[in-house]
Structures are given as C-alpha cells and as structure tokens.
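#lab-general

N.A. 3:47 PM
ok so I finally got the sequence cleaned up, no stray characters, all 316 residues accounted for. can someone with queue access submit it? mine expired

B.Y. 3:52 PM
send it over

N.A. 3:53 PM
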Amino acid sequence: MAVRSRLAGVLAFLMAAAAAPLMPDWVVSLATIAFANALVVLGLVVLWRAGLVSFGQALYYCIGAYTVALTARWTGFNDAFGLVILGGIGAGLIAGLVGALIARYREIFFAMLSLALSMILYGVLVKTESLGSTDGFTVSTPTFLGFALHGDKLGLALYWLTLGIGAVAAVLVGIYFRSIAGSLAAPIRDNEIRVEFLGVSVTRIIHVKVVIAGVLGGLGGALAALSIGHVDPAMSYWTTSGGFVFVTILAGAGSVAAPFVGSLVFEAVRSFAVDALPGLWQMTLGTVLLLTILFLPDGLGSLATRWRKREGAKPT
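B.Y. 4:20 PM
back already:
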C-alpha cells in the first residue's frame, strides 16, 4: 500500500508539472502561492502530530520572505535557487533560537509564545522605515542559474521551482516521520512522561520539530516573495498565521500530501469566493472549515485513508 501511495504521489507531481504550460496564467500564479504556503502548513503538521499548535508560523514565513528581498536589494544576488535556500537557512537559524525558548512549553503556552514572537517581528518591521515600514518594498526579479526570464516564462519557472521544492520537502518529511524521532510524535502527544522514561529527551525532539517547521516556513515565505514580487509586515501578522492554521485543520495531518491539497483547495475557494461574493468571502471560508470539522474531522487527508481502508476491506 505504501508503494501505491508513493507511485500516486509521483504521478500527481508529474501531472502537475506537465500541465503547467496548458494552464492560464492566473491558475499558475494561484497554484504557486498555494504550494508555497503548503510548505508552511507541512511544518505545522510536523508540530501538530506531537500535539503542538503554533499560532506564529508567520514569523518564519516573513523572515524567509525578507531574507530574499533584502539579500537581492543589498547584495545584488538574484538567483532564485540561492535566494530560496538562504530564506530557509535564515528562518531555520531563528527557529533554532526560538525553539530553545519555547520547546519546554506545551498547549496554549506554546501557541501564545509563538504568536507573541511573530507579533514582535511585525512591530519591528512596521516601525523600521529603512525596511519599508507598513508599505514594505518590491522584490527584484530573480534569475535562474544566470538566465533572466520574464512574463509567462518567469511564472512557469517559479511554479516549477515551488513544485520541485515542495516535492523534495514532502519526501524528506515523510522520511522523518518514519524515523524514530518522527515516530515518537504520537507517544509525546499522548504521554510524554513515558517517553522520557525511555531515556529520550522530549524537549530536544520538540526543539528539532520547531526548527524543521521554521525551515519549511522560511522556504514557503521565500517562494511566496519571489512569486508575489513584494514583501510587507503583514506577512508576520497574526491573521497570516491564522490562515496557515486554517489550512492545517482543513488538510489534516494524515499524510505529507494533505497540506498541498488543502492549501490548493483553500486558495481556490478563497479566490472564487472573493470574486463571486466579495462581501461574504470570509463567511464562505468559515462555512468550508465548519463543514470540514463536522464531516471530516481529520481533514481532507482522511479521504485517502478511508479509501485505502475500503480497498483493503474488499474481498479478493
């Protein structure tokens, strides 16, 4: 069954990559942002499996985005691959420091501390005129290994870059989930004292999870900054973090593919709701979340799990 799931993932990736030239520009742009945000959600899933909810993932998202923008502005370095890597590294370093502070906390204390740190960054950016204050600033057009692309070609290149990084991240996180540290997520959530009795440092494992989530958040922010072409303090605001938590609930933590599906559904529903019901789009999103909680409490990812159980239950 695991082999079939992996083959399905590879097939979905190839289809998404091959379909890009046939899609309208606005669909390519929407999918790029959706998959960039899905990296942040994937980081939240890493935490969620251990019973942790972060309301401050916008902190790493924003750091990744500003790292890209400031590196390009101050150094003139515009290579997309290098900028995204720098965005992930910058967010990972901050996550290492943050993790040392919050890894000992659980439940609402963990959530609120992460939110507070995100809002501190928001306040700093708003008050710093050299960083664009509330308006932010434009991100330089990236190059790809020395090649300057424009228009449709630039959009497609950013889409494929985001899709590729998302695929690599999903594979690596899947490997992590199957490792000993990843497998201890559920025991930590249920009874971390028993895990400590096994001689394992729960605090250290949580710290690593915070760093992984931070790196993924930074990668997502870096890709979003390149795609949007602009950064501003709203990227670290609490509503941005709330949106990521929304998608996490919508997607569920059942698989590494769920965040990408959930994020794509979220962006599609939001775009169509804003277009069709500009005054009621928030209510539309709320309704979607409510229906998901009522009928799919484990998120959209549980649909695949139910299908696998149903297939396994059929007589051969």
